[in-house]
Task: inverse folding
C-alpha cells in the first residue's frame, strides 16, 4: 500500500488555505500553552522592557506589527510602552479575527497568554479583572493605531484603500515581525527585499524586533477539522544570514540584542536602525 503524499502549502496559498482559528488553538490556547510556552511570549515583553527603560517616551509612540496573523501579543507586550499599535497581515481571515478581537466579538481567549506575558514582566495577575485590564490597555493602543492589510513584497508594505482611515504615522518608532518573512518568502533574495521593505517603515534610530524560525523548512499551521496537520513551507534561514541581511539594510549591529533557544529552532532579535 502506497503512503499518502502529505500536501505542503506555499506562500501563495495563505489566502485560501491558512486557518487563523486553527493556528491560535494550536499555538496560543490554554491547552497549547500548558504543553509548551511560545518563545515570543518571553522575548517580546523583555524587549518591551528594554525599550521602555532606555528610549525617551517621545521616541516610542508607535509600533507596527507586520504579519501579525491573528495574534495580538505584540499589543499586549507593549501596552505600557507605546501609544499606538498597528496590527497588519496579508490574509483577510486573519484581519477579520483581529477586528473581532478589537470589538470583542471573538470566542478565542488570550487569558493564558496574558498570564505568561505578565509573569515575564514580573507581575502576578490575581483575578479576571486584572487580566481584562491588561487586554483593554492593548485594545486601546490598537484603537489608536489600526488594523491594516499588508504585503511584505510591496515597497510600501501597507495596502491602503480610500474607504479606511490611513495611519497617522508615516514612519514608526518600532517595527515587529514574528515568524512572517520565512513564511512569506520562497527565496533568500525575496527575503532580503521584504526585510528592506519593512525596515523602510522604521524611523532613523527606531527599532526592529524580528522573530525567526531557524534551520527549518516546514511548519504546522494548526489542525484541520478532520485532525490533519496543515503544513506550510518555510524559507531555510540561519542567524548569520539574518544578521547580514539586517546589516545590509541600514541596521546598527552594535545595538543588536538577540535571544534564542537552540533546541527550539527560534531566534529573536532587537536592533536599532542607523540614525
Result:
Amino acid at each position: 500500500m502506497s503512503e499518502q503524499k502529505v500536501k505542503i502549502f506555499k506562500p501563495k496559498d495563505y489566502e485560501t488555505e491558512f486557518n487563523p482559528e486553527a493556528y491560535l488553538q494550536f499555538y496560543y490556547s490554554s491547552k497549547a500553552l500548558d504543553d509548551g510556552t511560545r518563545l515570543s511570549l518571553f522575548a517580546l515583553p523583555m524587549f518591551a522592557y528594554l525599550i521602555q527603560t532606555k528610549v525617551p517616551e517621545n521616541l516610542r509612540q508607535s509600533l507596527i506589527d507586520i504579519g501579525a496573523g491573528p495574534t495580538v501579543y505584540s499589543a499586549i507586550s507593549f501596552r505600557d510602552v507605546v501609544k499606538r499599535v498597528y496590527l497588519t497581515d496579508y490574509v483577510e481571515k486573519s484581519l477579520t479575527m483581529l477586528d473581532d478581537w478589537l470589538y470583542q466579538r471573538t470566542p478565542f481567549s488570550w487569558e493564558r497568554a496574558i498570564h505568561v506575558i505578565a509573569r515575564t514582566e514580573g507581575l502576578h495577575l490575581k483575578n479576571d479583572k486584572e487580566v481584562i485590564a491588561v487586554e483593554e490597555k492593548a485594545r486601546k493602543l490598537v484603537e489608536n493605531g489600526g488594523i491594516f492589510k499588508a504585503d511584505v513584497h510591496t515597497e510600501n508594505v501597507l495596502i491602503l484603500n480610500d474607504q479606511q482611515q490611513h495611519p497617522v504615522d508615516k514612519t514608526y518608532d518600532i517595527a515587529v515581525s514574528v515568524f512572517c518573512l520565512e513564511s512569506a518568502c520562497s527565496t533568500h533574495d525575496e527575503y532580503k527585499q521584504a526585510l528592506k521593505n519593512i525596515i523602510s517603515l522604521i524611523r532613523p534610530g527606531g527599532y526592529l524586533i524580528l522573530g525567526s524560525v531557524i534551520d527549518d523548512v516546514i511548519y504546522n499551521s494548526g489542525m484541520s477539522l478532520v485532525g490533519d496537520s496543515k503544513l506550510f513551507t518555510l524559507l531555510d534561514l540561519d542567524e548569520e544570514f539574518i544578521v547580514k541581511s539586517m546589516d545590509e539594510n541600514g541596521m546598527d549591529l552594535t545595538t543588536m540584542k538577540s535571544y534564542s533557544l537552540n533546541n527550539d529552532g527560534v531566534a529573536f532579535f532587537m536592533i536599532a536602525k542607523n540614525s
About this structure: The chain has one domain: 8-273. The first helix runs from residue 14 to 17. The chain has a mean pLDDT of 95. The longest strand covers residues 202-213.
